[in-house]
Amino acid sequence: MKIGVIGAGSVGVGVCNYLLTLGSVSELILLDKNLERAEGEAFDFRHTAALTFSKNTHLVPTDDYLTLIGADIVVITAGAQIKQGQTRVDLAEINSQIGVDIAKEVERVAPNATLIVVSNPCDIVAHFIATNTKFPRSKVISSGCVIDTARLMSIVANRVNLDPKNVFGYVLGEHGSNCFTPKSLISIAGQPADYYCDTHHIDRICADELLESVKQAGYEIFKRKQNTTHGIAASVFRIIQAIMINERSVLPIATLLNGEYGLHDVVLSVPTVVGKNGAEAVLSHPFTEEEMATLKQIANNVDEVVAQIAAKTGLDK
Ligand SMILES: NC(=O)c1ccc[n+]([C@@H]2O[C@H](COP(=O)([O-])OP(=O)(O)OC[C@H]3O[C@@H](n4cnc5c(N)ncnc54)[C@H](O)[C@@H]3O)[C@@H](O)[C@H]2O)c1
To answer: What are the positions of the active site (predicted)?
Structure first.
């Protein structure tokens, strides 16, 4: 399998680290507009191949899209970070334009690739890539709420002192602050969360407080180290693995919806089957009326930002 990572910054390098250590990738292309940066990271990584646990992945640093010819998966992490004084719409405008320019380059050399969009706001950037290229909707995946869901699992697990993998739940909607968690879906060791807490004499989990903690988690990291890397890199690796080995795992990734939940042409995270063809099916979930209303409100919020950016940039909506 040939994988490309665009952007040799903190997130791109984190993704490479997972792919080189845990993945089975024959060719890994690290592309950055700053060639020296990509080279520096690749040369550094190369020495890891001499160590026994490492696979001998062919790692190529580049600033030339031709190196991506025939790539199966391309991860887009290139873009700006939010700066002081900038609004979310300002960042969305910059990164949507960068994302579309990159995706068009990738389309020329790897039209069958599945794209995983990480650059923030990832759902908006993925929206414009899907509407401004010929990649099928199922192959333009925003990493969406996979990271937010991992945060939810970790927070609950910490409360009940269990392995996060024994907690089940989803954060859905838009990655970041415009998201929600259906409380009915949260379970611990296969048991409804309230039942588990009651029988273990632990205070019940308040879904609103939990969601607030999930939303705060990214800010708490960003405040301290001015980026977030490990969680998002692991989340991206999780998505790649599902595609690479055709897992058909259900993950809260985001794609451009096509009538599911009555929503059209909006990129939102909902439970989605991920396999070798990318987002293979969006699952229809029996949300309550209130949850459906929340999802619709989230979709309206995303639509508004998309409309503003389309008007400013001229990108197809
Ligand atoms: N979706 C998520 O959950 C999530 C989490 C963390 C970060 N992010 C986003 O990921 C992006 C990258 O974050 P980071 O910490 O790695 O940033 P970074 O500044 O460390 O790295 C960005 C890299 O992109 C490169 N770049 C910029 N424009 C480019 C272009 N047009 N072509 C090729 N390379 C280009 C830069 O040279 C730089 O090396 C940001 O948009 C950030 O907000 C998303």
So the answer is: 175 (proton acceptor)
Element (H, E) at 266: strand 264-269
Boundaries of CATH 3.90.110.10 in the chain?
145-313
Residues of the chain with CATH 3.40.50.720: 2-142
Sheet holding 278-282, edge to edge: 249-251, 272-275, 278-282
Calculate the alpha carbon distances from 205 to 17, 161, 168, 176, 181 in Å.
35, 13, 13, 21, 12
294 CB less than 6 Å from ligand 1? no
Taking domain 145-313, whether its CATH number is 3.90.110.10 is answered by yes
Q: Cα of 251 to ligand 1 centre, how many Å? A: 23
142-165 pLDDT, tens digit each: 999 999 999 999 999 999 999 999
pLDDT in tens, 56-97: 999 999 999 999 999 999 999 999 877 878 888 899 999 999
- The count of C-alpha atoms lying within 13 angstroms of the C-alpha of 311, restricted to the half-sphere facing its C-beta, is 8
User: Where does 2-142 sit in CATH, by number?
Assistant: 3.40.50.720
Token representation of residue 248: 């058909």
Q: Is 8 in the pocket of ligand 1 (CB under 6 A)?
A: yes
